[in-house]
Amino acid sequence: MKILQTVDFEQMERRYRAAFFNTAGGFKPVHLVGTANGEGKYNLSIFNSIFHLGANPPLWGMVIRPHSVERHTWENILETGFYTLNAVPEAFFRQAHQTSAKYSREVSEFDACGFTPVFHRDFPAPFVAESPVQIGLKLVDQMHVSLNDTIIAVGQIVCVAVQEDCVGLDGYVDIEKAGAIACTGLDAYHRTQRLARLSYAKPDTPLHEIPTP
Amino acid sequence: MKILQTVDFEQMERRYRAAFFNTAGGFKPVHLVGTANGEGKYNLSIFNSIFHLGANPPLWGMVIRPHSVERHTWENILETGFYTLNAVPEAFFRQAHQTSAKYSREVSEFDACGFTPVFHRDFPAPFVAESPVQIGLKLVDQMHVSLNDTIIAVGQIVCVAVQEDCVGLDGYVDIEKAGAIACTGLDAYHRTQRLARLSYAKPDTPLHEIPTP
Description:
The first copy, chain A, has helices spanning about 5-10, 15-25, 70-80, 95-100, 110-115, and strands at about 1-5, 30, 30-35, 40-45, 50-55, 60-65, 80-85, 115-120, 125-130, 135-145, 150-160, 180-185, 190-195. Chain A contains five helices and 13 strands.
């Protein structure tokens, strides 16, 4: 094993350090975030910083770097209060990655990268038609992380569109069956293969496998 | 597509809702969190709520539910200020899941579930010897999410032990090569297969693949 400490981290070149800590943290979800600005122009951007905060009410967090290329997305969320998170399907991972390019404000990444905006019920932000799990959120809180000037946006889920055959009787959404992928770092994409779902663990009791949809 | 809205979420049975929103959010990292209490007794618990907050300084967040089975871990972190995050290798996913059982305070999950505590340099919390990516953190901030009474613990990485052949020349840590796995929801584990690493995206420029270690 290679052992590294703070003094070593400080000597890392900036991009090396970003790649190192981004990938060392484990597999991440990857979403396309859909927004509209006040004039109804659409924006689409790839994010890999979504995390589950709770189910009742359903809350997800999202890490925002205010001065990065994600700023159009964040400005739209602040302006309208709504955004969508759309799971990236395997067949579209290159196009999804391409949304991270610095397009000008006049260009919609839906058009530039080949995705289709779609709307459900009265939710005001665009979903991605190609995605098997489409989630609509309302911004309900934001926390400032003073240590590195990032923001944690907290969204409450108010609308879900999901491929029907991927939802199990106990609520388990089989995103692998739906074709969703995982990512590592800022640029690597992975398909998955489930090893097992395991039963609720108790001391001195053998685990067994749970069926999936 | 099945469309669901807030009124539908409110009618879901509690465990159904927890499974639904936990799995719909995408693939997650999975770590064993190692701690010691003030008397030097070790604790080990599985977590799937780690997220990257920034690389300089290297900061990761972790979602804590203060009243859950994770409370021993959180009490130890508050008492000592230090904890370790250890990537779960595929061969150990059943044992890792078993650490979520409600063992009494007298039992160390290292012993009960078959993991080996190991120490690096002067870091005060136990790492997991079986893990290919072992991260030592110092608690530097905590944020209270008032909407659902959870805590986001912010840790600064101060020590890393990583399998040497998995670190690329540009800092990319190949956790797939290291044998780390992903999870969905609270109970499903997945191996991965990389599709590609993609180059930095620019408008109107074709993407190309980047080599991995």
